Here is the input.
Amino acid sequence: MSLLSNLLGNATEVDRSELEKEFNAILFETEIIESAFKIFRDKWVFTNKRLIMLDVQGITGSKKEYHSLPYKSITHFLIETAGTLDMDCEIELWVSGYNKPFKKELKKGIDIIKLQRTLASYICR
Here is the structure.
């Protein structure tokens, strides 16, 4: 992941095998990581059961917040593909009980259509 992408606020895709050790302790028995995105130290991890949003805090990064969002709580989502001038993708998730969506910009080249298909398959069951 390039420093420039991070400075611009763009997330990059993370290899699932890289996350298995880090998230093994919080995943439950039948839960599998589908895909994940990273911006600096924070991560959005999509499993077959929920979205886990990891917020790494502090200078040392030893303090971490794990937000667990069951797919049934997502009421609406938006995927925006990259364009000619606007070269990043975007995802927005609206959640029951929240007025504003959770937003993340994703680096161009991420398989945004695969991400949309993954979200749709879990949300629209």
Summary: The chain has one domain: 3-123. The mean pLDDT is 82. The beta strands are 10-13, 33-39, 42-47, 50-57, 63-70, 74-80, 89-95, 102-106. Residues 28 and 74 are 20 Å apart (CA to CA).
